[in-house]
Amino acid sequence: MHMKGVKCMNDTLYAIMYLEINLISVVLVQMIGRKTAGLSKMVSQRDFANAIVALIVFFLSDTACVIMMRGLIPFMPKVLLFFKTVYFVSTSTMCFLWFIYFEHIQDSSFVKSKLSVMIASFFVWAMAVMAVVNMFTGVMFYIDENGQYCRGRFFDLLYLLSYPYVLVTCTRALIGLFREENYTKRKMLFKLALFPLAPAMAGLVQFFKPELPVACATLSLATLELYLDWTERMISIDPLTMLGNRKQMEFFYEQWREDSNAEDMYIMLIDANKFKSINDIYGHIEGDAALVRIANAMRAACRDVHKRTSLARYGGDEFVILICTNDETAISRVRMKLNETLEQLNEDERSPYAVTVSIGVAAVSRDVGLDETIEKADEKLYEEKARRGNVR
């Protein structure tokens, strides 16, 4: 009787400890969710918020299962099976949402296709179907005749329906590290490659040692690191166009300046033609839309050159592209592609005005400051504006 009482007390203390750890994790990720809410209108922000919700559901269902199995609250077999089902479905959903979020912040073309996203959600739907099947068959987990929770013969499948998202995220981030055009994103890609590993390892620990409360704590800390990285990147991003700002542009320049083996660098200073008239005639909302159109054309123009580039909103209706290349024809290709894309976007938008730009190009020298180089590009820019009659 004494040993049984000691075990009961140990179970209660363990359940209380588990509850405390998981509640702290819930509070932490809830605070992160509230801090990020409304800070950005990016689609990736929606995915981040949804992942936070899935994370909280995961934490709460995990907590409910443990404190029930340890006797802190009355043991009810059907309720326990329900929370276990929620736990595993939320695991797969959470992994899927983090995967989509990572694809968005890498500006991946994959997530721009609704069909691709639907196909990628296969494992989540498969998990949901298996969870329903398990309620009637117990093939993954069940409560035996003695009232004990047991793993079924297909329990391992629950992990196989979640971990592919982790593996794909890590793999794609690692591959991106070695692509030349991702030169300025390497720090971010390195973090993306590492982020899923700690929670995944913690999940594996709990697979073999379910009594160790490591999964929720590790996930909450990894989410905190992701949040801190997100806020750091937001400081360097123009909120309207989602291009870099001056800080990001200067950081790219300093990186290039310190790399003696880097290719030559050119600066393209881009200015919207007769932008004031767009604001005056059509209003500032349309003016903002015109700036976003230019930013989208810049992204499209640089996507095909496979060179190190930094795209930034320099200020007002002025933009900058820093491009590292020893091939001067790459500059001409970017210029041509930018103008072609703008023309196509003007047609697609069916707006009452056509957005056009003037571009000034200058070679960047390590011996000359970036501001002086921008002045040279500015002179070329206004020469083009004067030649085409676009001086405001």
Short summary of the structure?
It contains 15 helices and six strands. With 392 residues, it is of the alpha+beta class. The chain has two domains: 2-235, Up-down Bundle (Rhopdopsin 7-helix transmembrane proteins); 246-388, Reverse transcriptase/Diguanylate cyclase domain (Alpha-Beta Plaits, 2-Layer Sandwich).
Radius of gyration: 27 Å
The CATH topology assignment of the largest domain is: Rhopdopsin 7-helix transmembrane proteins
Number of domains: 2
Within CATH, the superfamily of the largest domain carries the name Rhodopsin 7-helix transmembrane proteins
Q: Total helix count? A: 15
Using DSSP, what is the number of strands? 6
- Classification by helices and strands: alpha+beta
Label the overall shape: elongated
Please identify the oligomeric state.
Answer: single chain
CATH class of the largest domain: Mainly Alpha
- Main sheet characteristics: 4 strands, antiparallel
Percent helix, as a range, is: 55-70%
In the CATH hierarchy, what is the architecture of the largest domain at level 2? Up-down Bundle
Please indicate the percent range of residues in DSSP E strands (runs of 2 or more): 5-15%
Gap between N and C termini: 92 Å
